[in-house]
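Title: Prediction job returns without error message
Component: structure pipeline
Severity: low
Priority: P3
Assignee: unassigned

Description:
Job completed but the reporter wants confirmation the result is attached to the right record. Sequence as submitted:
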Amino acid sequence: MSTADHADATLSADDFASIRQQLARSMRALDDGHPERWAASFTDDATLHSSTDGAGTPIHLAGRAAIAGYGTASAAHLPPGARRWLNLALIESTPGGARARTYVMTYTQRQGAGCVAHASAILDADLIRSDGHWRYTGLQLTARDYDHADWAAGAKAGLAGCGGYTPQVDLAHPYNPNRGAGPLDHELIQQTLAAFLFYMDDGTQPERLAALFTEDGLWHMFGVDRLYRGGSWHGTPMEPVYAGRAAITEFNRSGHATRQPWDRHWGHSPMITIDGDTAHAYFPYATVLAGVGAHIQPMTTGLFRHRLRKTNSAWLIEECAAFIERAPADLPDVTAHAAHHYIGGVA
């Protein structure tokens, strides 16, 4: 993989931002029950393929009218107030357009009982610029009804013995965070972060994930010493520190190439500071087991702290530090107190 594969400078900063807005607007149109606004996100001859109906029956639609009908049916299928949550989107140029890939989770709030997730899907979209706007020419939504109870039990048992802590976030330049950087640099860094999450979960091309790092890049795992060294999760004991692309590739081959297809990393609101050719990115993450209905489960939360360097127009990771958090023992009591104080009930 060349550095150009994930640092795509053929798209402008405005293109990246506009495509993200297109993803957000189209999902919001479904949330708000506006099938005409949803259909306006597509070209006249666009196609939509979906297996997110929970019954496993694939849906194949062509043309705006049919796609508008999907918006109406989607609103009828889900409980009132359903919302769609998008992960960081990996956006890449294609001949004549762009491709965007991300995760989307559908959930609803339950009165006095927290929220419930209904489905988690992979969204894979092809887009072109049409009449000054980015629109879908094809959209694929893929969800599967996994049964991962045994795997989840083993993973939770391994995580139970792991320590966890969150580092202090110390921004390099908190009052002047983007010295010497343009809007495109900020966008390309977000794309490196999105690729990092997406390729780690895919697991089939460990070299592609390692290529996001500099030749001497470092990957540190904190709070998982017992989990990795004992091999209780991945089956093979591994050290929690990896140096260089070869070591990172082998780590990903051992730890992620056999990763279950439902184990996904969700990254949130990266905080990025840029100083010339060096950047720092901090973003919380959660691992959530995908599927349909009751099979969706959150597993871990933590923080990624990346240091990146600009090399031949690509932003590569010099150091990745991953921190896994562990909830305090009295969390149920804290949650119950907060629920009683703020919403007058038990979460």
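Comment from assignee: result matches the submitted record. The chain has two domains: 3-142, 149-324.
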